[in-house]
Amino acid sequence: MLCAKKFLKNVSVLVSEHRDWKLIQVDLPHTKIISPWLVPLPRTLKFNCDAAVGLSYSSIAVVARDWRGKVVLALSKKVNTTIPLQVEAEAILWATSIAAEQRLNRVCFKSDSKTCMDCLSSPRSDSHWRISYSMSQIRSLASSHPS
After folding, report:
1. 71-79 and 58-65: which strand pairing?
2. What gap in Å lies between CA 53 and CA 55, rounded to an integer?
3. Which domain holds residue 50?
4. What pTM does this model have?
5. Structural domains counted in the chain
6. Mean pLDDT, the chain cut into blocks of 10 residues (147 residues total)
7. In the chain, which ranges are continuous DSSP H helix?
8. Would 127 disulfide with which of 2, 64, 98, 132, CB 3.0-4.6 Å?
9. What Pfam family does this protein match (any one) (predicted)?
10. In this structure, is residue 20 part of a structural domain?
11. Has residue 133 been placed in a domain?
């Protein structure tokens, strides 16, 4: 009987904690700043690259808009890596490949991966080993199609 009373008391405490959980306010720092879409230069296409990492695979997406904000391309595909930095690099590489294949003259690229963008914006930057192949491919495409 003593065991049953102790069990019921423990259950009662857990139910109370569950019921009252909303009363606890926790102030979390803002981790992501949402910025508005910035218009590219006239007659330029802007490629926004993004990635979503899953447990066994990830997805990448590319959205291209013109200088008026009109969506001219929106694609997504599955990639076989679950390492966030690699997935972001794959998205940028895919966007660069699309622009090169379409022989687009005036393009710019946007990604929320600071590591990838810093690597690409600095000509002497050493890439993280996980993205070095993707970065070299992007640089190769950019040098063969300078716009």
Report:
1. antiparallel
2. 7
3. 45-142
4. 0.72
5. 1
6. 68 62 52 69 92 94 94 96 93 95 91 89 75 87 72
7. 2-19, 84-101, 114-121, 132-144
8. 132
9. RVT_3
10. no
11. yes
